[in-house]
User: Fold this.
Amino acid sequence: MRLRSEKQILEKEYLWQHVCQCRLGLVGSIAGHFQSRLPRCFVLLLLFAMAGCAKNVPEPATIRGETMGTTYSIKISPSPEKSVLDELHRKIDTRLEEINNEMSTWRDDSELSRFNKFQKNDWFPVSKETAIVVTEALRIAKLSDGAFDPTVLPLVNLWSFGKVETKKEIPDEHKIQEVLRHIGYRKIRVRLEPPALQKTDIETSLDLSAIAKGFGVDQIDQLLQQEGYANFLVEIGGEIRTRGLKTKKQHWTIGIQSPKMPQPKVYLKVSLSNQSMATSGNYRNYFEVDGKRFSHTINPKTGKPVEHHLASVSVITDDCMTADALATTFMVLGTEKGLELAKRRNIAAYFLERDGETMKESRSTGFSKFIEDSTPSQWSMVFLVTLVVFLTAVLLMAVGVILGKIRIKGTCSGLAGMTDDSGNPLCESCTIPPEECSQFQKAQKNVVENDA
Assistant:
């Protein structure tokens, strides 16, 4: 960068003084008057704040699709080129299809469905991914003393919540007890090398629907990182994983839906970065008999739908697979036992329980730090007050200029440079002779050319 000469600096100072001595119309006048009346730091702070508000922050790119009997949505910031995004979409669909072929109980030829039909006690070879998910499912089952149980599938089907469409009715008690004989996570064994599953009861079957979506979210998270992305949000059927930031200074904001139907709304907002959140509820999938509600959340120990008033649970952990399984666990346990387990294991969990016509909330200590503060920050309040004062002052000054014909200092451009047919300035408030304005404009042009 070249240094300016002393002459150029002096010319700049002259120009500035000359500018402050000229008079103009309303807009330029108000600006000049403000400059002479308010501390310069105040004006600069206001201008920077307004410039920040006017900045257009681009929205993240969005990829949408269907998988696992539900929908998925992925947001990436900043947005990649369309061709890159299309190729990424293809890779995401391919990975999710692979997971479906491994763990879906809705596909008769999936890896898991073939294991469920396997009528031997021998080891059944599976993919590494299936073995990993079953390992985590059995860990959560042990942690919760069986409240979470991946062998609950026969009970789900018995209560008409499975893939086969049947009449919604209460099963015979004898039938429930018969099915319960084959339920129990301890009847399943898993090994990672070589990956395989084994069942000690050939009638036992696995259902990973309460954990597989979370695993799918984690897998897409890994895929996006491998592709070089650092800021994104992955959501499959309401199970979420965040990475990095939505914008340079903004975390990803996630809304927790109120279970009140038929028009649920956002009940609470949380702010996440590099965390996962899963929500489980019983306010959508249920049926009623004689006025009594039966939800799809089955207690593996009783063989029947849960009967407590807990409507939904949201869990925040590092990985989504674990959050997914824990959310179902707490739905089975209910608020009191679920909150006790969350506190004992330092799990961030949020419970919404029906209390008549209202909702009662409970949460573990670890969850509170993620709740988004809806109270305006101190700087936001300062800006709002400043903006109100600024706009009020501008309005009052404008009224004074119009009604009181006040002359206010401005610049030598605009109306001062425009003349009528006789050569007189159109701006009557300008007291600088046209010759001086011409000289000033010529000097300004010379300085600009010397700087170039």
Summary: Residues 252-374 form a domain with the T-fold fold (CATH 3.10.520.10).
